[in-house]
Amino acid sequence: MKLIPVLTEKGLNLAKGGQYSFWVERGHTKNQIKKIIGEIYGVNVTGVKTMKYKGGTKKNLKGKTIRIKERKKAIVTLKKDEKIDVFEAKEKKK
Fold first, then answer.
1. Please, are residues 11 and 5 in contact by the beta-carbon 8 Å criterion?
2. Over the stretch 25-57, which tens digit does the pLDDT of each residue have?
3. CA distances from 56 to 23, 24, 26, 33, 60 (A)
4. Which of 50, 69, 70, 93 has a CA positioned 20 to 30 A from the CA of residue 57?
């Protein structure tokens, strides 16, 4: 299964509150996502919210038509005091 963390500004802000977002394959259910994230990262998942993004076509600046794939995003809530290291921001050295 493809499991890609969403490392955007909004995703990192959610991670501070114990919610982590991932791009997942469209065919997976919430229970499957919960099980897979628990196995990969060794955490206890308490909740999963999913969102579907429609695909379609779009024109770029040069006028070419681009196909946008359909995707699914999952926001996972963990038990208190559990973290996923991928989302931890590294502090800059002075």
1. yes
2. 999 999 999 999 999 999 999 999 999 999 999
3. 18, 18, 15, 25, 13
4. 50
Structure token pair of residue 42? 């060794």
CATH class of 3-81: alpha beta
65-93 per-position pLDDT tens digit: 999 999 999 999 999 888 888 777 665 55
Question: Could you tell me how many helices (H) and strands (E) the chain has, helices first?
Answer: 2, 6
Q: Tokens 């579907």: give the residue.
A: 52
Taking the whole predicted model, whether its pTM rises above 0.90 is answered as no
Q: Sketch the domain layout of the chain as residue ranges.
A: 3-81
Give the tokens for residue 77.
């809530």
Q: What tokens appear for 80 in the block?
A: 């208190």
Whole-angstrom Cα distance, residue 24 to residue 93? 34
